[in-house]
Write a structure and sequence with these properties.
The structure is a homodimer. The first copy, chain A, is α+β, with helices and mostly antiparallel strands. Helices cover about 25% and strands about 30% of the residues of chain A. Bound molecules: pyridoxal-5'-phosphate (2 copies). Chains A, B: It catalyses: L-isoleucine + 2-oxoglutarate = (S)-3-methyl-2-oxopentanoate + L-glutamate; L-valine + 2-oxoglutarate = 3-methyl-2-oxobutanoate + L-glutamate; L-leucine + 2-oxoglutarate = 4-methyl-2-oxopentanoate + L-glutamate.
Amino acid sequence: MSTTQASKIEIIKAPNTKINEVDFDNINFGSVFTDHLFECDYKNGEWQTPTIKPYAPFMMDPSSRVFHYGQAIFEGMKAYKDDNNDIWLFRPDENIKRFNSSAVRMAMPEVPVSLFTEGLNQLLKLDEAWIKKGLGNTLYIRPFMIATGFGVVANPSDEYKFMIILSPAKAYYSGEVKVLVAEHYSRAANGGIGSAKTAGNYAGQFYPTSLANKEGYQQIIWTDDATHTKLEEAGTMNVFFRFNDTLVTAPTSERILDGVTRKSLIDMAKREGINMEVRPVLISELTEGIKNGSLKEIFGAGTAAVVSPIKGFAYKEEYFELPKIENSIALQLKEKLTNIQHKLAEDPFDWTVKI
Amino acid sequence: MSTTQASKIEIIKAPNTKINEVDFDNINFGSVFTDHLFECDYKNGEWQTPTIKPYAPFMMDPSSRVFHYGQAIFEGMKAYKDDNNDIWLFRPDENIKRFNSSAVRMAMPEVPVSLFTEGLNQLLKLDEAWIKKGLGNTLYIRPFMIATGFGVVANPSDEYKFMIILSPAKAYYSGEVKVLVAEHYSRAANGGIGSAKTAGNYAGQFYPTSLANKEGYQQIIWTDDATHTKLEEAGTMNVFFRFNDTLVTAPTSERILDGVTRKSLIDMAKREGINMEVRPVLISELTEGIKNGSLKEIFGAGTAAVVSPIKGFAYKEEYFELPKIENSIALQLKEKLTNIQHKLAEDPFDWTVKI
Ligand SMILES: Cc1ncc(COP(=O)(O)O)c(C=O)c1O
Ligand SMILES: Cc1ncc(COP(=O)(O)O)c(C=O)c1O
């Protein structure tokens, strides 16, 4: 299947490029798209002819299942260009695997690995001018799938659309991040869909996050919904805590997205000889850690945000600010990771893949 | 605002009707739509000119927020035609109120009551030929709102589309319903979005429901995610249990949709002098109730399904069948409710509204 499908991609080129209209140094994250997109529809139980074509709106029926019952999944990846103009991906196999496990959980068809890979690679080659060289410049890749079947009946759709769109991007968060620890609202249920990268998980966070924003916090650190004592993850990042010289992060579960950045940082930390623990982290450890001085750092980790230091957190109406420190492990790991991703340092893990 | 907006609806009539192509006695639920739809877009912080126009697909950008972050809510209502050709709605105020509380929870703008009401009423008048007389004939009404703003960044959209589409419908479930009681999977978290009628809540149920289907169960009765001991609701229905001559249903909460049918049945049961309890119901009460003979009936309640008797349930690999009974309270309440809705009986509650 892999070769047949790969050879079948229909390519319709855009008559002109929009690239000259773009100020690459001033792009809001996720707001500008390249000239082309990759599209493949699923109908009658199989994937149809894949197409690369100009980025453009498309027609949807008002009764399309995605609007009513929310079958929608996505991934977030990045492409990097090195000094030789080669294009690199970071652990794309992990994203494809996660995309397909999200698909299973949302009762959607899996996308064959060869279709995903070939579609992505050919799209990147066609729009390669949009990938700029240099640390901090990346092309954000957004594969997604939506239910396009008709009918307002709460059953899985029989038709789907898989697309990949590309958006040039710098880092996601700018400025210092303060977070609120969730005491009432939750992101995910036991036995729910928290570990799937599905659209509804994000919409559910917007209202509580808007309440947090009003109080001056950019993000929420979600806790388990039963006891609100275990720290789980932030809106689009997994979270790490440093107590003295030990890094700690929560184990993945049905409630937590199994982040590629998270698992990469765990491996990097271990290789650096940093003491790395994967275990449930309690909110009480943070408040005590602030009091006795053992809590040194908190940072988020995700493809969009890379590594994002957190300045302080609020819990039960109290704000706790982290100490200023000299040797931030967050910043060291961030530098090492981005150097690997941008091919500016050796990649001892074989994580980077040339397309 | 109410009168200005009401007067502003732009109406574009369909050149011809599709009604003659429809076999009203053989329609799959939610699969056939009337000639027109109501549409109103939200932009720059306000609702734009509302329009009634021919039912048709519309354009969506690949980066539309609904595809990526799942801001999407809906309602389900029905219209009925009486012997005088008057058109009636059942407690529409309840649906509008719930729609707007779903909107708040999903960080979407509320739809002004007058805009919703006028849009719906004018649409129903225009497509009134699609509402057939007679018990069991209804027009299912699907108001919904989706995030149409551009950009793959996990923030609330700045643009939305509100639509109402109409679909002629008979009863939703046919045949006898067997249910599976959830032991591992869950529908909603404490502090989550379970009480909002939002798209993602439905997609999350499809996979566990497909596993249940394979074992011969049509629906799942969801339990609380922390202990899986409290019976909450089914996929698109609230659930009632009859122990001897007492009816019991779970209280609403953040995890449970506050159903219009549920609250109507509670009021009807009370008026009939039936002992009606609203309290948490444990799975152990059901298994014991089967053993000692006190569990007489289980039924689902919802707009689409009306009242749907449940034949038996499975829990921990064991199937429990309910006894056959003579005087089913489910069927009595169903008859009373549908008679009120179809204007075939007095409406002592003032629930029906003529448009
Ligand atoms: C909920 C959530 N958690 C964590 C992450 C981080 O995952 P990754 O490192 O794979 O980007 C993301 C973003 O992708 C996310 O959406
Ligand atoms: C999850 C869920 N529970 C219960 C119901 C029943 O609510 P109502 O009686 O208002 O239709 C519905 C359907 O509308 C539903 O989707």
